[in-house]
Amino acid sequence: MDLKETEISSQQIFQGRILDLSVRTIKLPNGETATREVIKHSPASGVIAINDEQKMLLVKQWREPIKQLTLEIPAGLIDPTDASPLDAMKRELNEEGGYKADYWEKVSEFYSSPGFCDEKMYLFYCDTLTKLTDKRSLDADEFLTSDWYSLDELKNLLAEGTIVDAKTIYAITVWENMLLSGRQSDDK
Amino acid sequence: MDLKETEISSQQIFQGRILDLSVRTIKLPNGETATREVIKHSPASGVIAINDEQKMLLVKQWREPIKQLTLEIPAGLIDPTDASPLDAMKRELNEEGGYKADYWEKVSEFYSSPGFCDEKMYLFYCDTLTKLTDKRSLDADEFLTSDWYSLDELKNLLAEGTIVDAKTIYAITVWENMLLSGRQSDDK
Q1: Per the entry, which co-factors are needed (chains A, B) (predicted)?
Q2: E strands of A66-164, at which residues?
Q3: How far is B188 from B184, CA to CA, in rounded Å?
Q4: pLDDT given at position A184
């Protein structure tokens, strides 16, 4: 079965700072037409940052769409001035945590909710961290704190429903998986 | 540090079929004001469905926001007529796969991208599946096929970049983790 849909027209509804909204008319595989509400959103990077005590870095911040404080892995939109998703992540780890890391690897890349939005996230792993003395400033409208959590603490936070962010829940599962597989820092 | 932000006003830009967009003016922790572009989106359910051959069910469909075919776990928006997220998932497993399952458990719930959107997803695990003879119809604008994949096949699809959907990548990691932890069907 040919599942492809074809765009016939697109009406832009809104062009914002971090997202655009349009309503697209498409041709379905059976020849009928339908509409799709589509968000275009800047791509982002996130990181599983593990320190020498085998703890993961999370940041606490207010999320207006769900009107609650969240615990999330360090992450941020990729700026036009960032040379790459990894470069963006190194900048964010500095801004949000005040750290640099000597070991980096790519974990995965994915679309956060491709049914309505093109937001793409690049997820990295890093360790061998050093606290920076010359931490970069956060954005003017960005307020957050950061702290370290062991896997047991993270599992408790998950079980009690304190961690509610998809990429962070995925990141914890990836890290647990690395530990279960017997992946150690000296395997690198 | 108090990180809470307070909504001062909200301007609705668009009210659609699956999402609404508004621009909110908020008061930051330091007393300054800023704006936030906020999407309200219906909640959804998704499922890790494993058959007796230890294969996972994925559906293939066209995703207009990223203009490509994706492989994703069965999932769908929770309808007002669904009694619960689990009830919605049972309906979707019937519509998208044509199956019913005798064993169900809740895996987690999360917001897909809480920085700009309130879309919440409820993730379930199920096994002990039976093919239905009275499969429900898909929505009129929904076209998809479904198939079964072993963990090795899924890892290859991940490695080659064929699977790009966040909840599906997370679901595969959860399932791998269950297998690594020695979780067997007879542990239930």
Answers
A1: Mg(2+)
A2: 68-72, 75-77, 99-111, 120-131, 144-149
A3: 8
A4: 54
